[in-house]
Amino acid sequence: MQHPAYYTWIVFAGVMAVSWWAFAGDPSPDLMATWLAGYFFEQGAVYPGSEGVFTMQPPDAWIAELDAAGHEGVVYPYVYPPLWAALASRVVGVLPFPLVEIVATLVNPLLLCGMVWLAARTARDSDVSVPLMTLAGSLLLLATLPGAAALEQNQPQIIVSFLVVAAIERSRAGAPVTAGLALAVAAAIKVSPALLVVAWLGAGRYRESLVFAIAGLCLALASVLLAGWPMHAAFLAELDAIRNTVLATFFTYGVDPVVAGLVPAGESQFILGRGGETAWHVVEKPAVWSMLSTLAMVTILAVAAVRFHAASRDGREPDVLGYPVFLVAVTLVSPLAWGYHYLAPMAFLPHLLAVFGLRTGLLALLAVLIPLTPQSFDLVRSLPVVSQMPAALGTATMILVGLLLHLAGRRRAGRPSGHLQRPPVSL
Question: Which Pfam families match (predicted)?
Answer without folding.
Answer: GT87
